[in-house]
Design brief:
By secondary structure, the chain is α/β, with parallel strands linked by helices. It has two domains: 242 residues, Purple Acid Phosphatase, chain A, domain 2; 119 residues, no CATH class. The protein is 30% helix and 24% strand. It contains nine helices and 15 strands. It has a six-stranded mixed β-sheet, with helices on one face. Strand 5 and strand 6 form a beta hairpin. Helix 5 runs parallel beside helix 6.
Length: 373
């Protein structure tokens, strides 16, 4: 009864330039922590092998330190590993995989699946890999599996990295296409796929494992898994059990803000926020000065509660209401300036009003009011 773990899209060596430096370090470390947890899970579940369906590295030429660290982590385990080149780390003539082999970095328990050749792992398992030799290939590289000759009493496992048109969103670009009927045409007991970062069951024998650590917004709750797969014998349907190994949860929310009551949903989100979350907020609407001050307080609380927070407020318009005007200005030259800016709405006037009211509010807080003696 062969049993293995199916994982993919580790993309080790990835950086997070859109985040601040401290958060980027945390997110980079989380990808390595996911690998460590996969090693632990493989040992706990006593699997025969771990199959990595492409994109082990973020680039085709990762730093030496990244390769050395990976081979140290998985080389110290007693588990067999099969690593497949994907579109991020294809098997180029002078790429990572060839350099690793040339430098004799690859441990004895690790197989680099660099050619479309059957890999016999023992215990009745044969892996049929479809490595990518360049970033984009328009032909289906799994076709060779259909004619691959293996022993009749073995379990045939396909290992590939690419796109199945039938599960892609409409209009999505197709690169490295794979037939939705690959498992059936090649008489595979299981097809382990990489490329999509979500966990997806394509059919009863074909799965995407998704990335073991979320790395972007929009994946929902279907990222962060490793699949444990067991096949009782040739021709039997696989038993697939997902295991969550991720550290962080990436969530995206949109809030429409106009009045203080609209802020309640955001306050509730802050109240139930968790330390392991990375959040993206898209704020829309129009906020007057009082609402803006309250919003900033809620965002400060939220930042203190989660691992990371990104706020997109490009669609949140700043407006000055009657209460703002009366609380900060009674009469005079500045009141005229404010009226002029309000009467000429534009990005420049909005920014001018924002800066003016923020400055006046600081003065009011510092001196006890604009009209204080």
């Amino acid at each position: 009864m062969p049993r293995w773990l199916h994982t993919s899209d580790w993309q080790l060596g990835r950086t997070y330039a859109s985040f601040d430096k401290d958060l980027a370090v945390i997110l980079e470390k989380a990808r390595w922590d996911a690998v460590e947890r996969i090693v632990e899970l493989a040992s706990e579940r006593k699997v025969d092998a771990v199959l990595v369906a492409g994109d082990v590295f973020e680039h085709s030429d990762p730093p030496y330190e990244v390769m050395a660290k990976l081979f140290k982590i998985i080389g110290d385990s007693s588990i067999k590993w099969v690593l497949l080149p994907g579109n991020h780390d294809p098997a180029l003539p002078f790429g990572a995989w060839q350099q690793a082999s040339k430098r004799e970095m690859v441990p004895s328990n690790v197989v680099l699946a660099l050619t479309p050749t059957p890999i016999e792992l023992g215990d009745g398992m044969v892996v049929l890999p479809a490595p990518l030799t360049q970033k984009r290939i328009q032909e289906d590289v799994t076709v060779w599996m259909r004619d691959a000759v293996t022993a009749r009493d073995c379990v045939r496992i396909g290992l590939a990295h690419g796109s199945i048109r039938e599960v892609l969103p409409q209009g999505a670009e197709i690169n490295n296409p794979i037939s939705v009927d690959c498992a059936q045409l090649a008489k595979l007991d299981y097809l382990a796929l990489g490329d999509w970062h979500r966990l997806i069951q394509v059919n009863e024998r074909t799965w995407y494992s998704g990335t073991p650590e979320p790395d972007r917004f929009g994946l929902g709750d279907r990222a962060g898994f490793v699949l444990e797969v067991e096949v009782l014998g040739p021709g039997e349907l696989p038993r697939v059990q997902p295991h969550r190994v991720s550290r962080h949860e990436w969530l995206s929310f949109t809030f429409e803000l106009h009045t203080e009551s609209d802020l309640q949903a955001l306050k509730e989100l802050a109240g139930r926020a968790k330390r392991n979350q990375v959040l993206e907020l898209c704020l829309r609407g129009a906020a007057d000065f009082g609402l803006k001050r309250e919003l900033e307080g809620v965002l400060s609380d939220l930042r203190a509660s989660v691992t990371g927070l990104q706020v997109d407020d490009k669609q949140l318009r700043f407006s000055t209401g009657r209460a703002d005007f009366q609380s900060l200005l009674q009469d005079g030259y500045l009141a005229g300036v404010v009226r002029y800016l309000q009467a000429s709405p534009s990005a420049v006037s909005e920014r001018a009003l924002r800066l003016l009211f923020e400055r006046l509010a600081r003065l009011e807080a510092k001196e006890g009011g604009l009209n204080a003696p």
